Amino acid sequence: MRKASRLSRFNIASLALGLAFLYLPILILVIYSFNASRLVTVWGGWSLRWYHEFFADRAMIEASWMSLRVAVASATIATLIGTLAAVALSRGERFRGRTLFSGMLYAPLVMPEVITGLSLLLLFVALNAERGFWTVTIAHTTLTMCFVAVVVQSRLGSLDRSLEEAAMDLGCAPVRAFLSVTLPLIAPAIVAGWMLAFTLSLDDLVIASFTTGPGSATLPIRIYSEVRLGVKPEINAICTLVIALIAVVIVIASLASKLSSSQGESAAPL
Amino acid sequence: MSARRIFARPARFAAIAPYVWMVLFFLVPFGFVLKISLSQTAIAQPPYEPVFDLTAGWTAIRSAFAALSIDNFRLIASDDLYVFAYLRSLTVAVTATVLLLVIGYPIAYGMARLPKRWQAVAMVLVIVPFWTSFLIRIYAWINILQHDGLLNQILLALHLVSQPVVWLSTDTAMYIGIVYSYLPFMILPLYATLAKMEPALEEAASDLGAPPWQVFWLVTFPLSLPGVGAGVLLCFIPVVGEFVIPDLLAGSNSLMIGQTLWLEFFTNKDWPVASAAAIVLLVVLLAPLLLYERLQRRQLEEQ
Predict the structure, then answer these.
(1) Which of A3, A95, A249, B277 is the most buried (most CB within 10 A)?
(2) So where does this one cross the membrane (chain A) (predicted)?
(3) Sign of the dihedral through C-alpha B16, A101, B258, B233
């Protein structure tokens, strides 16, 4: 017999406090971005002043554009390669170098960013590559494809394999069976993977700082150098815009994963 | 041959592109870090010697090899600045991980006890902040913690303090920032194991007369250990090398190793020493990294 309610008062309190802790700081930031006063902490009425200031700031706009391009390019490449990696890991059975392969895919998920950034920069310097858009894109792809691989692999793992096997018993070639049976089923996870890669790239400061060249700063690099000098209301406005963009991305991704998680969430996609 | 085996063959070919990519952009770069960590600092571009020049012929390469030295590692081992930075990184990471576990566990536990329908909502609510920018979340706290920030205003208004408290540039601010940023990483693996747990086990224990704390300590907690392990590793490893949070929120009198490495690289332009610091950091983290990799692989392949 199941007891009527398993939720104790302690459970409810810890959930409420936890969520408040996670959301209040962001909420406060968004509210202050509409503050008319130059002093960040004094409320001077509602205003869009800092948004105007942001759109007049050429350097910030350029950095935002750079970040967006890098995020789209790296997320796309990462999704392609990351999905291939997930397929190989969950359907490839045993192959030579499999342990090294999975090790290389899982390590960057937790590897301190200073190490990843430094090592990639040293590679680019050794190759004499011109640092800028492409080096940052490659660096972000390397990091984010691992996240894509984990998200897609977790979906492939929970998929009923008899579906693709049935297609093959009926005379489908393996590649055909994958493209027409497996791929549509994992498509939502692939979309979610792209979104995750996109936001991770948009967010990254450390790896971008190492791998970019002079004159091509990304948005987090600009924000960081401003924040080091102190709090500016304009930064609140930029942050709010980024949050709004990411919110749109999350809505799309969660719709996609709602389609994907018909069998319930196993393994959080982190 | 079974359909599964036939399917596996082309699936293995899918590994080629990601394999090549990761070897080229993940594995090979570590070779460069290792090599440069053994080189001498030079005022040049790139700022280190010797540079391997494959076109210069065999003798040049051999002399380049001969010029490699472990001086940078000797410097790191003998310089208090580095020793303290490593020790501080480990202390901060251990403290932060314990804080995260203590704060994250009740939240994950509460989530796991919600009705099924609400569990999915709660999970999305915990993941969403992870998607909003890391830097923005730290910045949000600077807003709150600064001298005339919201926290001090509230404390003054409630007459809890008579003067504004200094929050920024303190370890307290740094720990708030770390806990805030890494909380989802701790909650999600904990929640994943707690949600799978059979409620009958806890009920049986309490039916047999165990008080709630004993039910928790003797039944729930031991069963959730895999989640605890995953959450601890997921937080501990990146926090050791954390740069942004201590840089923006903590004081500048004692640095973590991520900051030292950054400083050595960007300000002092001493690439060899920065590389050596990265190698040492990697060695320190090797055991937890391998453990994490095994956990992750087992979790994904057992489904």
Answers:
(1) B277
(2) 12-34, 70-89, 101-127, 133-152, 173-196, 235-256
(3) positive
Q: Looking at the complex, report in whole angstroms how far the Cα of residue A208 sits from the nearest Cα belonging to chain B.
A: 13
User: Could you give the percent of chain B with pLDDT greater than 70?
Assistant: 90
Q: pLDDT tens digit string along B39-77?
A: 876 666 666 766 665 566 666 666 666 667 777 888 888
Tokens of B66: 């001969």
Q: Point out the residue among A28, A120, A231 whose CB comes nearest to the CB of B25.
A: A120
Q: What is the pLDDT of residues B235-254, one digit of tens each?
A: 999 999 999 899 989 877 78
- Most B-contacting residue of A33, A115, A140, A150 (CB-CB within 10 A), to test interface: A115
pLDDT-derived band of residue B1, with 50, 70 and 90 as boundaries?
Answer: low
Phi, psi of B40 (to 5 degrees): -95, 145
Every domain of chain B and the residues it spans: 79-301
Write down the pLDDT at residue A263.
Answer: 44
CA A107 – CA B282 distance, rounded (Å)? 11
Structure pTM? 0.86
In whole angstroms, what is the distance from residue B256 CA to residue B92 CA?
Answer: 8
SS3 letters across A204-239: CCHHHHHHCCCCCCCHHHHHHHHHHCCCCHHHHHHH
Count of beta carbons in the 10 Å neighbourhood of residue A99? 10
Contact A6 B113 (CB under 8 A): yes
Chain B residues touching residue A183 (CB < 8 angstroms): none
Tell me the ipTM for this assembly.
Answer: 0.85
Q: Inspect the interface and report whether the beta carbons of A109 and B32 lie closer than 8 Å.
A: no
Q: How many angstroms separate the CA of residue B136 from the nearest CA in chain A?
A: 6
The alpha carbon of residue B92 is apart from the nearest alpha carbon of chain A, in Å, by 15
In words, the CATH class of domain A57-260 is: mainly alpha
DSSP state of B48: E
Bond from prior residue into B47 cis (ω within 30 degrees of 0): no
Q: Smallest Cβ distance to B303: which of A40, A150, A266? A: A266
Peptide bond just before B46 cis, omega within 30 deg: yes
CA torsion through residues A78, A225, B133, A245, sign: negative
Asked if the Cβ–Cβ distance from B188 to A149 is below 8 Å, we say no
* Among the four given CATH numbers 1.10.3720.10, 3.30.420.40, 3.30.1240.10, 2.40.40.20, the one describing domain B79-301: 1.10.3720.10
Dihedral (Cα; A113, B144, A195, B230), 10-degree rounding: 60
Helix or strand run (H / E) with residue A49:
helix A49-56
Mean pLDDT over B167-174 rounds to: 89
Give the pair of three-digit tokens for residue A237: 């406005």
- Copy the structure tokens of residue B35: 């090599």
The chain B residue lying nearest A195, using CA atoms, is B131
Domain residue ranges of chain A, discontinuous segments joined by +: 9-47, 57-260
Which residue, A117, A122, A126, is CA-closest to B51? A126
Average pLDDT over residues A100-114: 88
B106 touches chain A (CB under 8 A): yes
| Overall average pLDDT of the B153-159 stretch | 87
Report the C-alpha gap between A213 and B290 in whole angstroms.
Answer: 33
